[in-house]
Amino acid sequence: RFQVFSGDTGRAASLMPVGGGFAPTALLAGFSMHRFGVGVDPMEDTERKLNAIKPIRPGARVLDVCTGLAYTASGACSAGAHVTTIELDRAMTHLCRMNPHSSALFSGNIRQLYGNGADVVPTLPDNSFDRIVHDPPTFALAGELFSEAFYGHLLRILKPKGILYHYIGDPASKSAGNVAKGAAKRLKKAGFGGVVIDYEAHGILAARGRVKASGARGKARDLKKEKGGRSPEERK
């Protein structure tokens, strides 16, 4: 395990092997940043998030809010998208340099922005992105990233036919389920016309018009067996 201390957050961050030869996850404040366990590894977790916003066509503009280990940004980039990613914690970038599975972040094909997403997103132009992946830290530590005002900016920078994916945690769990309900209400108040919970991807999908979840609610019971997949209260 490789560990660093973050001067940005005041917390330790580390790369944690998950076994089986799979890509590692990041461990922050004792909680993993990806699901892993029965049938799921960090890359599969990432794939489910990206599947939720398919299709990602070559040349599409994708925003990744909260870079982490850059698996999401890397996956979108490999699909041919023009990716912009936002990260508050430079310690995460250091972990990315130590992790060969994060190497695409330094390929020159991904635009990196630093700062709190709540400060950076409002500076981005209207109708800029075809897809947005919002993978925020804990609600308790970053409530501004769950606010109606912030959601309004995500809607503003999303193209008319764009899709937003918002990580929540296992919607079948009590804690993440409550967060999902509150987030869904605020997304609608912010102006998103279509808002659905995606149980397969452990998040919410939102768009100006109708949007369809990638996974059925019935799959949620199976996902409870997975490790990681922390609710926002448990993250960072």
From TrEMBL:
User: Bias regions of kind Basic and acidic residues — which residues?
Assistant: 219-236
Q: Which Pfam families match?
A: Methyltransf_11 (PF08241)
Task: Cite the Methyltransferase type domain residue spans from the record.
Answer: 63-165
Gene Ontology molecular-function annotations = S-adenosylmethionine-dependent methyltransferase activity
Region named Disordered: 211-236
**Which superkingdom?**
Eukaryota
Q: Which residues form a coiled coil?
A: none
Q: What is this protein called?
A: Methyltransferase type 11 domain-containing protein
